[in-house]
Sequence to fold (115 residues):
Amino acid sequence: NQVPSDSSQGGSLLQPTKQAKKDDNKKNPKNIINREQCREFKMQEDKDWSMFKNKKTLKWRLEWKDTCKMCPRWHSRGDCLPDCNNAASHVLCPEILPEKKESYRKYLKRLRRDD
Fold:
């Protein structure tokens, strides 16, 4: 599921194929589902999950509490792993404080602009 890429431009030697990216966007039936996502947090239809996993954008993730970050998989993709390191942030939309919502909207705007 991977094809060689040009490593002279700083890329890795293998890049995921389009099929691998599609598979990565599929939801695993073992995952827990966020049944009350904030509408404005949902991943855009024309985007794939890779925008959240980019090394550059990982450092932009927001603090949820001292122990974890706000989980983009839960809040934007709508599902996550039961043993996620950021599980403390797996709350429903009505439970997110307004200032956290605003910060997450800014984070998404930055991700989408950079993509």
Q: What stands out?
A: The chain is about 35% helix and 15% strand. Residues 18 and 81 are 23 Å apart (CA to CA). The chain has a mean pLDDT of 77.
